[in-house]
Amino acid sequence: MTTITWLYRGGVTARAVAAIGGGYVLAALAGALIALALPLPRADAVTIATLLAFVIYPCVILWVFATRSALRACVGVAATCAVLGMVLWLVGGTA
Amino acid sequence: MKDGLRQSMAWVHTWAGLLVCWLLLLVFMAGTAAYYRHEITLWMKPELHAAAAAPATLAPAQAAQLAVRTLQERAPGATRWTIDLPDERNPVIQAAWQNPPKKDMTRQERRNALRDQNVTLDPTSGLPTAKPRDTRGGDFLYRLHFDLHYMPAIWGRWIVGIGAMFMLVAIISGVITHKRIFKDFFTFRPKKGQRSWLDAHNATAVLALPFHLMITYTGIVTLMFIYMPAPTKALYGDEQNTMFSDVFGNFERGKPADIAAPLADIGTMLQQAGRAWGVTPSRVAISHPNDAAARVELYRPSGQQLSNLEPAMTFDGVSGALLSETPPVSTALATRAAIYGMHVAHFADPLLRALFFVCGLAGSAMVATGALLWGVRERQSYAKVVANGGRVGFGVRLVDALNIGAIAGLPIAFAAFFWANRLLPVDMAQRASAEANWFFIAWGAAALLAQIRPTRAMWRFQLTVGAVLLAGIPVLNVFTTNSHLGVSLFGGPGLRPVAAFDIVVLILGALLGWAAWWLGHKAKQKAAKKQTAADAGSTSTMEPV
Prior knowledge:
The complex is a heterodimer.
Chain A lengths: L5 H32 L4 H25 L3 H22 L4
Helix pairs in contact in A: 1-2, 1-3, 2-3
Chain B lengths: L4 H30 L2 H7 L5 H5 L6 H15 L5 E5 L8 E6 L8 H10 L1 E4 L16 H10 L5 H25 L3 H5 L8 H14 L1 H14 L1 H4 L2 H7 L3 H9 L17 H12 L5 E5 L7 E5 L12 E5 L5 E4 L5 H14 L5 H31 L2 H5 L6 H30 L7 H22 L3 H25 L4 H4 L7 H40 L10
Antiparallel strand pairs in B: 1-2, 1-4, 2-3, 4-5, 5-6, 6-7
Helix pairs in contact in B: 1-6, 1-7, 1-16, 1-18, 2-6, 4-14, 7-10, 9-16, 10-15, 16-18, 18-19, 18-20, 20-22
């Protein structure tokens, strides 16, 4: 109990934000991209993409807590979000 | 986190579980009860029991015709009629109507009005039965499961959705952290303090693991388009409603022609659908009756397929001609419907439904033992402090109190809801809301008392109250209804749900009573042990509870 340092607390908070907030954004971006990429009728594509988004989300959360350091977790989620966001922007799916 | 994968997953498992376990317990218990939503509703309307006891002798076509006759008398100008025909889970004929909405009606007023716009018909005579008491029945528990209460439904759905996401993470991390998951399942070390709670948690979790994982993921999927609108946004932009009609089917019912036209014979349509499906439709919906644009939809009874999209046939209400059948859906949409269908389990036959109910109870036990385990483990770090007459930390006290309020308090709340159904005056105004209020009055009182004195005595007291209230329900029935166990056990098959309800609450009450007894027994044993230790002159070694 006494070994809990502020560094540790900060790390846990950062991971929680990266997992819950960052994970959601990542899953949402990935879901949007999958929806655009699937060569299926709109209703089918949106259904499969949303189903998959809820597989991606928990995986991201667990990775964030499993990875070596909080910094790695934050950078990893942010970088993936940036790449996915960029691709989405290029594809023009935000219209 | 700084350690191996297993340790970090154990950490995630502990905190993801602990933060939402009391909410999850409510959701699990209400959801488990909601598997028997229709049976609970029937139980909560004792006025219908006499009609339910009589075997349905009317042919379905005839029953539908008689229901239409009653609807013609009561609501000829309605926008929509629905008729539910007797089947395995519903022993009576139910007819309901919707009136054209008034402009200034609030949502609540419309909902209240809807509750009055229905009539139950006797399955032998087709005549209206006595008006049942005003109650939401099993629908209250069904809604509580995902809408919560006393708040806008959408808030409740988000709160429950976030809880479900925590649950999903807790389940997956729990599996990863659990090295010997299947071996440990066969291990139970009773009366060993923390070890026993851990074994109980493992057993209830692993036993029904496929169910827990399935029910959590499918639960999120039921409302996934609300929780995750991004893919919809990418493909549909702002036309979310277009997506809903694409995915969920077109619910556009058309506009009335405002030209009066007589309704064609329902019986003939029912026979036509029955011949095509091999089973008679269980549900009839008529939009714009007595209008030239009338449409009749017949639905196949559930239980034939996993998907919750039941095939339907649409007839022209005036000519009686078959207009369309539900077209087969694509694989993706069928998948979603099957996932949804798995969650609501309309497909399940009685045995499978009972298995789902037991799995739901196992899930409740898993959440409860997990919550207890945290307190037991945390308490160890205070063992020395407590032995010296000190107190446990704030966190442990809070979790203990919340555990009592949820684990022992929730059964009291459910029981209070059923007692209110029997004891509130039948002609009381706002009766259905009052029943729901009693659920929360009882739960609030239990939770408050637990916060004031989170002790072992409080555990025993609340478990005993829950046991007496639940097991007392069949006794209460003897004094307040004519369909107590003595009657329902020997009555017609239509009364089976009523009898089963009484037996199930009796068993649950007995289990709670056993838990209360066991706690007292353990306390006595411990006191005796302490006494011998003190007699021997040695300092007592504190054991965690």
